[in-house]
Automatic annotation (TrEMBL), chains A, B, C, D:
Residues 26-45 bind DNA. InterPro entries: Homeodomain-like_sf, HTH-type_TetR-like_transc_reg, HTH_TetR, KstR2_TetR_C, Tet_transcr_reg_TetR-rel_C_sf. This is Transcriptional regulator, TetR family. PANTHER family: HTH-TYPE TRANSCRIPTIONAL REGULATOR BETI, HTH-TYPE TRANSCRIPTIONAL REGULATOR RUTR. It comes from the Bacteria. Residues 3-63 form the HTH tetR-type domain. It comes from Melghirimyces thermohalophilus. Keywords: DNA-binding, Transcription, Transcription regulation. GO terms for molecular function: DNA-binding transcription factor activity; transcription cis-regulatory region binding.
Length: 200, 200, 200, 200
DNA sequence: AATGAATGAGGCTTCATTCAT
DNA sequence: GATGAATGAAGCCTCATTCAT
């Protein structure tokens, strides 16, 4: 079938890269994991770098796509924010491998890393839009910088997911864990930590 | 001064490791940067790994120390939170190199990475304590999980700093940038994004 | 025409091999240049080596053929020498690609290289015969070793052509260049460089 | 001692490169032949290419040097020509390995090859100067192009040497072989092949 | 304390060749 | 006849580490 091998390599590459990081990952391992010869990888991809970049591009695309799908056409900003939160946590949790790469391979001056930061910026902008919309409608507090706030939220989300994924003592099913993280983040973002005098 | 050479190596190592990440960094580069022979590094450190770990340990120590210093004995939880925020952002911003390493070299199963996560946990616990204290005093809203909230806050802080450091188009002095980030994070954490009916 | 594909491959192979030399040349490039799939080349030729040898054989054959044609039945040794010179320079200049391969791929102990030297010997023998004929008729000075002299002449011819082909600053049409080279070589071979007392 | 290892590598590299040509030669073989580890070669040379170029540069330098030495201050053009011939043949014969590389690795567009051709040009110019000097003094026949003639002579010399070196059936001591080649070339260059009417 | 030459395991990549379609 | 995906042996190069001085 068309692209079956490529699919296989792709899949294995995610595993291997996520397990070891870009530098530590060995093409040999990707090949073994994919059940193909080393040369086959080079037949389909120009090299380690290209394979990795293709991978991350794909991951980002799918993530953005899924988030859009889950947010749907919900008009209410608060509900939109919740949906986005849910979607993002869910995806990152599901693809922890990808989450890890995103956070660890995005800081630096190598070209690839700049591209990754650009991708992150896309995610951030998704959040930003919601914040702006909410502020315009008056249901969200106006921010000094919607962009900076969005960045902070993205950081909170991704690090929360990663910290959870790498916690040895975590319990419960994935669904429960995700629900917990989402609820927690939602609480923080929506209400802040301080007791507001006007609320019960 | 005692250990001038060691100091030199240490300093250069921070630069080089931060610029390239652990794997990409070359002992050769550290040596050249420090103006010593390669052998000298191995005379003072057991190896690349040890040098790096010593580095990170040192960075974390100094960070914790500085944060403690800046938080002082402030009893009011909200002010404590603000001081902590200010201290953490300031330190990470100042030592962006360290911030980068912390975020990119902490996710994985290599022993060193586990140690880093433990260090992160220390930072998180600093935040956590403030949250708990605030909740006990009644000025902070009780959280589902103070720990998770603290993690989220740490993520927000560190990613905000990194994103800012790696933004090519950022303007203003460092002090201004830091102040902006702090204010923004404070706003988010303290009040959340939603307009609460009881506030003006 | 019969063997159109083969013809295509052959033609492309000359180009590619000449451009890169035997080792550097890639079957992939030959295939791309010929507009066929890589497998097709292996369908028609046993391998890289065979393709190359076939090529060189063909080149030598055509060269010998053309030289014979141009020398015709000229009985006078001096005129024969001139015709041979003209023919050889012309052919090598025209097929510089071939000339290059001949000079660069003929020295070594690989079987193929021995075969090439044998081919060169054929060319040398063409020259040798003329020298011997001339010596027998008395119009040529007797040589210590007609064979060695013939080799030297071949070297002079081929290197002259190559040096000219690879001179970036050469000017004039091909015909002019060839005529120049021929005239020069003729002068050298026929008269030597020393002024003989008996000549004007 | 200073540079002993480098000397060793150099020497081995000549052997290996000459035996196999640039592409076929393996750094591994050079290392084994030199009795050092592979890494040692890379400690002293940037890579295969640099090693090779350094080699050829060195070879050309020594050759030019030796030729200059042997030609000395001889004022008479004819004797100068003979000395040069003798020196060049002697050197190439002695360093057949180098001769082979010179002739086989000099034709192409790779930068290194351009450098080699430049080196060849130096040799050619040595010859050219003698020709010009002789022509000015009136003892040499004026040439259409002294440069082209010099090139032809260089070609005759180098190919003669190589052909001889690779002749399986050659007999006699090296000195005899060299003497034969020199005499033959001298005869060809000095007098040409044609019987001049004015000589006995 | 410091040096830097030497090492060699390890990883990336190339490319001639095969073979099922 | 022709294809092109797949292979894997082979080779170049890197770099952490060692050690004699």
């Amino acid at each position: 079938m068309r692209g079956e091998t490529i699919e296989q390599i792709f899949h294995s590459a995610v595993e291997v890269f996520a397990h070891s990081g870009f530098e530590r990952a060995k093409i040999d391992d990707v090949a073994r994991h994919a059940g193909v010869a080393k040369g086959t990888i080079y037949y389909h991809f120009k090299g380690k770098e290209e394979l990795f970049v293709a991978l991350m591009r794909d991951g980002m695309e799918k993530m953005t796509e899924q988030i859009h799908r889950q947010m749907g056409r919900e008009p209410d900003p608060l509900r939109r924010l919740r949906a986005l939160l849910q979607a993002q946590v869910e995806y990152l949790y599901e693809h922890g491998t990808f989450a890890k790469l995103l956070l660890s391979e995005s800081w630096g001056s190598v070209e690839r890393q700049q591209e990754f930061r650009a991708k992150i910026r896309e995610l951030v902008e998704l959040i930003e839009e919601v914040l702006i919309q909410g502020a315009e409608e008056g249901s969200f507090r106006p921010q000094m910088s919607h962009h900076d706030t969005a960045v902070a939220m993205f950081g909170a989300i991704s690090v929360s997911v990663l910290q959870d994924l790498f916690s040895p003592e975590r319990t419960g099913t994935r669904e429960e864990r995700v629900a917990g993280l989402v609820a927690n983040l939602e609480k923080l973002f929506v209400d802040g930590v301080v007791v507001s005098k006007g609320k019960t």
